[in-house]
Amino acid sequence: MRKIGKLSVILSSLLLATLISISNIEPAEAYINRFSWDPPYEFRGYDSIIYDENIIAYIDGTTASIRIPVEGEYSPYMNVTAVSIVFDTGLNETLDYTANPVKIEYEEVHSFVISFTADVSELSNEWAHDYWIYVKFNYPFTDYWSVSWSYWYPAYRFVVFTADQDEAMQLYWKYYSYRQSYPPTDFIDIEARLLAIEADVEGTSGGLDMGTLDFTAAKEHFQTAVDLYEQAFTAEEVWGTQVQEAELEVFQKEADAALANAEAAQTEADAALVEAEATQTEADASTAEAEASMKQAEAAMKAAEAGYVWMFFGFGWILIGIGVIVYGWRKPKTPQ
User: Fold this and answer.
1) Phi, psi of 214, rounded to the nearest 5 degrees
2) Nearby residues of 166 by Cβ (< 8 Å), 6 or more positions away
3) pLDDT in tens, 48-68
4) pTM, entire model
5) Alpha-carbon dihedral sign for residues 301, 305, 306, 311
6) Distances (CA, A) of 75 to 106, 107, 121, 143
7) Contact 78, 54 (CB under 8 A)
8) CA atoms within a 13 Å half-sphere pointing along the CA-CB vector of 262
9) φ, ψ dihedrals at 37, nearest 5°
C-alpha cells in the first residue's frame, strides 16, 4: 500500500509538471485571410434569374482556382500539412503537404492556390453550392482551422455553368441591358414600340425556361428578344431620320419665308427712304420759296416805306405851296 501510495504521488507530480509545461507553450493557429476566386470565371455577382443570390460561376470543363492566404499567428513558426476545399456534395480538393510541410513563420502570409476542373457531373448546376476551406498544420501538435464560404461579405456560392446555360445567360444579359437602357415605353415610333413589347414577351418566356433549367429553349427565346430589340432600334432610328428630315424641310421653308419677308421689308424700307428723301427735297424747296417770298415781302415793305416817305415829302411841299398861295391871296395889297 505504501509503494502504491508513493507511486501515486510520483505520477501526480509528473502529471502536474507536464500540465505546467504545456501551459507555458504558445499554441499555433493557422489564420485564413480572405480567399478569392481567380479568373477566368464566367460570372461573379448577383444572379436574379436562376439562383437568386451571389454566385461565382465557371463553365463546365474549365479550370477553377481559389487563392487562400494563410497567416501564421503565433511564434516561432508552424508547418502546414494540407489545405482543402470541400463542397456540399462531398467533393474534396486538397493540397497535400504531409511529406513536405510548408513552414510559415510568425505573421508571415503564404498564399495557397487550389485548382481543379469544374465538372457539372460532380457539382450540379441545379443549385449553388456551399463549400468550406480547411488548413491542417502542426505546432508541435496537429490541428486545423476552417472557414465557410459565407465567412466574409460579400460571399459567393459556387456554380458550374453548362455551355448552353452560359450562352443563355449571355443572351439574357444582352437583352436585359437593352431593356434597362431603353424600355418599350421610351420608344416614340409605334412600330418600334410594338417590337420592343414583343421582345419583352420573348424575354419573359426565356426567364421561365431558365427557371426550369431548359437552357436550349431559353437561348431561343432570348435570341429572339435580342433580335426584336435590335429591330426596334432600327425602326426608331429610321423614324427619327424621317422626322428630322421633315423638320429640316419645314425649317428650311420657314427660313425661306422669313428671308422673303425680310427682303420685302427691306424693299419697303428702301421705298420709304426714297419717299422720305423726296419729301425732304420738297420741303427744302418750299422752305427756299418761303424764304424768297419773305425776302420779296421785305423788299416790298422797304419800297413801300420809301414811297410813303416821298409821298409825305411831296405832300409837305404841296401844303407849303398852298400855304404860300393862301398867304399871297390874303396879304394886304399896297395901294398904288
Assistant:
1) -90, 80
2) 42, 59
3) 889 999 999 999 999 999 999
4) 0.63
5) positive
6) 5, 8, 44, 16
7) no
8) 6
9) -90, 130
